[in-house]
Specification:
Elements (H helix, E strand, L loop, with lengths): L10 E6 L1 H18 L6 E6 L3 H10 L5 E9 L2 H4 L4 E5 L9 E9 L3 H11 L5 E10 L5 H4 L2 E6 L4 E2 L15 E4 L2 H5 L6
Helix pairs in contact: 1-2
The structure holds inosinic acid and magnesium ion.
Inosinic acid (IMP) binds next to strand 5 and helix 4.
């Protein structure tokens, strides 16, 4: 089956299954459709992780939408706390007067999204909202930052449905726990 999980000891339990994702994406699309009833939102996907989510979400919105993409990379861990990210690919379109929805795979610390929102707000859009498939549990202020939230996720790396580790696993239908070296070495590869 295309996109099925690989038979890989590094992959752990399903954190969010494909059916659940499909249902939630439809709900988020309906919510955005209502909220933007008289507008044409510009969906700005953050590459690469958001590409699968954004493709499904865009088709769940019953409004004209436009899409564009940005690619960013965080600076090294020592400067990460400053929330500085490097823009590797910028937008093609002018944001003046636009209603922007930033689409991201996961808000982890929220630093990337905070930086991007600041950067986009400086370009005089009419509005900027944030939509994330996953929002890390227990991180202060993410609830206020992310207007449209798919699922809360506990700490721990996850892959699939766009999310990767070292560019792998993006094509999986489910969102799956990725076992760190320690987990994988502990003997249990059940699930
Ligand atoms: P933040 O700036 O700390 O919120 O980092 C967000 C970015 O880190 C996301 O766009 C992802 O690229 C990456 N990230 C954080 N946690 C995970 C994960 O569990 N799986 C895959 N990517 C992750
Ligand atoms: Mg990312």
């Amino acid at each position: 089956m295309t996109g099925a999980r690989e038979d890989d000891p590094r992959l752990g339990e399903i954190v969010v299954g494909a059916d659940e994702i499909r249902r939630r994406v439809v709900e988020l699309g309906a919510e955005i459709t209502r909220d933007y009833a008289d507008r044409t939102p510009l969906l700005v996907g953050i590459l690469k992780g958001a590409f699968v989510f954004m493709a499904d979400l865009a088709r769940s919105i019953d409004r004209p939408v436009e899409v564009d993409f940005m690619a960013v990379s965080s600076y090294g861990s020592s400067t990460r706390t400053s929330g500085v990210v490097r823009i590797l690919k910028d937008l093609d379109v002018d944001l003046g007067g636009r209603d922007v929805i930033l689409i991201e795979d996961i808000a982890d610390s929220g630093l990337t999204l905070r930086y991007l929102r600041r950067s986009l707000m400086a370009r005089q859009p009419a509005s900027v909202e944030i939509c994330c498939l996953l929002v890390r549990e227990g991180v202060p202020d993410l609830q206020d930052l992310v207007r449209y939230q798919g699922f809360p996720v506990p700490p721990g790396w996850v892959v699939g449905y766009g999310l990767d580790v070292g560019e792998r696993y993006r094509h999986l239908d489910d969102i799956v726990a990725y076992k760190t070296h320690e987990d994988a070495g502990s003997g249990s590869v059940a699930g």
